[in-house]
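We treat protein structure as text, and this decision shapes the records that our systems exchange. We quote a single record here, exactly as it is kept in our systems:
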Amino acid sequence: MAPASKIKIIVAKPGLDGHDRGAKLLARVFAEAGMEVVYTGLRQTPEMIVETALQEDADVVGLSSLSGVHNYFFPKVVQLLKNKGLDDVIVVGGGIIPKEDVEGLEASGVKGIFGPGTPTTEIVDFIKTNARSRN
């Protein structure tokens, strides 16, 4: 039996939000948890994020938003992934996301929302449980 491939995650900062300390920290946490991580950098459009997911054959797209644009960008990324036939790529999001926005984001196809103070082990476990298997 061949060994399982690493989960590949794209960590992205959509929009004009210029604060990426949390995204960089999570990228490192994911790498230390055995995942392959591609950090796209700041100021990414949904199209750029989805193109990276396609080119990198990603299992997961992790979005970080601190600027209140999550209700636009997160569902847009989900829809563009579907348009490219990448329905099996899960999208998770984090940052400053009001509780009243979570239900709508999940209804749009975002699989998990993680706010400030969420233990990193909880995020890693969620991704390992929900990412597609490469076997």
About this structure: The longest helix spans residues 70-83. The two ends are 9 Å apart (CA to CA). DSSP finds five helices and five strands in the chain.
